[in-house]
From TrEMBL:
<feature type="domain" description="Cation efflux protein transmembrane">
    <location>
        <begin position="42"/>
        <end position="197"/>
    </location>
</feature>
<protein>
    <submittedName>
        <fullName>Membrane protein</fullName>
    </submittedName>
</protein>
<feature type="transmembrane region" description="Helical">
    <location>
        <begin position="162"/>
        <end position="185"/>
    </location>
</feature>
<comment type="similarity">
    <text>Belongs to the TMEM163 family.</text>
</comment>
<dbReference type="InterPro" id="IPR026765">
    <property type="entry name" value="Tmem163"/>
</dbReference>
<dbReference type="GO" id="GO:0016020">
    <property type="term" value="C:membrane"/>
</dbReference>
<keyword id="KW-0967">Endosome</keyword>
<keyword id="KW-0770">Synapse</keyword>
<dbReference type="InterPro" id="IPR027469">
    <property type="entry name" value="Cation_efflux_TMD_sf"/>
</dbReference>
<feature type="transmembrane region" description="Helical">
    <location>
        <begin position="121"/>
        <end position="141"/>
    </location>
</feature>
<feature type="transmembrane region" description="Helical">
    <location>
        <begin position="26"/>
        <end position="46"/>
    </location>
</feature>
<dbReference type="GO" id="GO:0031410">
    <property type="term" value="C:cytoplasmic vesicle"/>
</dbReference>
<dbReference type="Pfam" id="PF01545">
    <property type="entry name" value="Cation_efflux"/>
</dbReference>
<dbReference type="GO" id="GO:0008324">
    <property type="term" value="F:monoatomic cation transmembrane transporter activity"/>
</dbReference>
<feature type="transmembrane region" description="Helical">
    <location>
        <begin position="88"/>
        <end position="109"/>
    </location>
</feature>
<keyword id="KW-0812">Transmembrane</keyword>
<keyword id="KW-0862">Zinc</keyword>
Length: 212
């Protein structure tokens, strides 16, 4: 008789595990809603302020939303009890990391070649500040839930939220330091985040927990 442990989570009958699965799904739903608003506001404010940094940040939110959709898919219906679905979700989250990395590099290359510099935007500052505060809370909550569930997909989504907060900090810092001529801070942060995304994507593909 085949070993069913490869198909069914060993703790599926535990009430605590099921509560954490529902919590992971609800956290992802909440994140998806905010990322939708974040993306629209970032694109709108960035276009009005002619800020490529803000436009790029708004677009990157769409990639992060993909990870939330993956986790919602993972913990919905019959997939709730499937380790095969967990492996698929973990690898899909890895791909979303890898989509983010080349986007950041290409975005930096485009900005440098065109000579673009970030410019202040009141709405952009408000939106990025909210993300700077809220995304670490969501990210750490997902990483804790993901660790209890043994879900690398959930932990990977949490890591993306933490990267989102760092990106928001980079945008805010770039806007501030650009006023004193330190224009290079924004692209430097973007390249560091691209390297981190590649690293975290590799770990998510292998099903390992992502680091803080």
């Amino acid at each position: 008789m085949p070993d069913q442990r490869t198909h069914v989570h060993p703790a599926v009958q535990e009430a605590g595990w099921l509560r954490d699965a529902r919590r992971a799904r609800l956290l992802s739903v909440a994140t998806l809603g905010w990322l939708g608003a974040e993306s629209l506001l970032g694109l709108w404010s960035g276009t009005r302020a002619h800020s490529v940094a803000l436009v790029g940040w708004g677009l990157s939110a769409l990639v992060e939303a993909l990870a939330s959709l993956i986790v919602i898919w993972r913990f919905t219906g019959a997939r709730l009890h499937s380790l095969n679905a967990e492996q698929t979700a973990s690898r899909a989250v890895a791909v979303s990391f890898w989509l983010l990395a080349p986007y950041l590099v290409l975005h930096v290359a485009h900005d440098l070649s065109e000579g673009y510099r970030a410019t202040p935007s009141a709405l952009g500052i408000v939106v990025t500040t909210i993300s700077l505060v809220s995304m670490p809370l969501l990210g750490l909550a997902k990483r804790r839930v993901g660790a209890r569930l043994g879900s690398a997909a959930t932990e990977g989504e949490g890591t993306q939220n933490l990267l989102c907060a760092v990106t928001a900090a980079g945008v805010l810092l770039g806007l501030a330091l650009n006023t004193i001529g330190w224009w290079w801070v924004d692209p430097a942060v973007a390249l560091i985040l691209a390297a981190a995304a590649v690293h975290e994507g590799r770990k998510a593909w292998r099903g390992h927990s992502c680091c803080h």
